[in-house]
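Aim 2 progress update. The chain analyzed this quarter is reproduced below.
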Amino acid sequence: MTLEAFTDVETDETETFEPAQNKTPTSQIVKPDTAPQRHNTRWIAGLGAGTIALAAAIAVFSIEGMSPTKATVAVEAPAAVQSVNVTTASPLVAPITEWDTFTGRFVAEHDVTVRARVSGYLTEVAFEDGQMVEEGDTLFRIDSRPFRAELAAARAEVTRLEAVLENAKSEAERGERLRARQALSAEEADRRVANLAEVEATLAAAQARVEQARLNVGYTYVRSPITGRVSDDFVSVGNLVTGGPQGGTELTSVVSMDPIQFEFTASEADYIKYTRLNASGERASSRDAANPVRLQLVDENGFPHEGRMSFVDNRIDPSTGTMRGRATFDNPDGTFAPGMFGRLQLIGSGEYNAVLIPDASVQTDQGEKFVWLDVNGTAERQNVTLGPIHEGLRIVRSGLEGSESIIVSGTQFVSSGARLSPSEPQPVQFANR
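Predicted structure tokens:
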């Protein structure tokens, strides 16, 4: 293509511009019906020829400069499918007995509030706050002088009445002898007999007052009614305390320590389960048998303390839908204290062969529980129904038979149908064995 192909200017067709000072432009305008059409046609023709020539030159250069091998179109091969590294294990099948877990608190077998039984001024506190005491140990002393005086007066009255009684007996006997000789009227003889009976009754009442006075003197020594641990003194020395049958002043409290009881509540569903197990003969009722229990304190692992069931209530609380139960534990070293929190396990089934797996292998999908299986190197999902944890392993109610190969590690990279590269299978074992 030459430069002339793009040139379409006629030398005789020009526009001349002069200053606009009262002059009229004298430019000549190209006629629209001929000049523009000729210009466009020649420009397009020149552009088309140039484009075709340039494309032909590129094609010739490419074909001449490329060998037949380089001209071949290369097809990219698909990437190889990578396998997922996982750790597998076979479920453990073993005979077990299930244990149900409950929470509760310790309560004393005996919990006694110590009160004053007589009124008076407190003269002594005979114990250290919080110490262990034996049944009968003196805890407090109340001023006993008024009561000793009452005792002495009561005894003196008894002595006086005993003398009156001897005289009445003599009078009655003499009256009977005189009546026999008709030397005394029957009326007088009967009066002497009645007087004797009256004196005897009065003496009995006086003797009772002596016993009451003696008891009051004894009550000035406030003693521990049980063996256990005493609290602090609620009333200090010098204070006036009040006694009496309507409830005296609270002085302290004593709780028994050994044995000690653990109280908890079980749901209505648990109660129904235990009742049906008892009916089928798989597990005796805790009302009829001292079923074994295990206990865990807040700072302990496992359930190292062993005890026995000792009480099941006779009704379900309608406000909570639960039933009370108590277990008894030996407490020789005083480890357990009333009010202490703990977790208790109660035997909840008969012995049976269970399928157990690590709890970490269990996956969740919108409420469904499942595990990944290694089936000939391919991942497959298996839904399962789970039970409680038993010695660190999860009980599987249904979904597994025990011969499967489950994925226990690397599940975050597993999907259904994924190729697996399992490592050496790991043994499944109980946590505390």
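The longest strand covers residues 99-108. The two ends are 96 Å apart (CA to CA). These observations will guide the mutagenesis experiments scheduled for the next reporting period.
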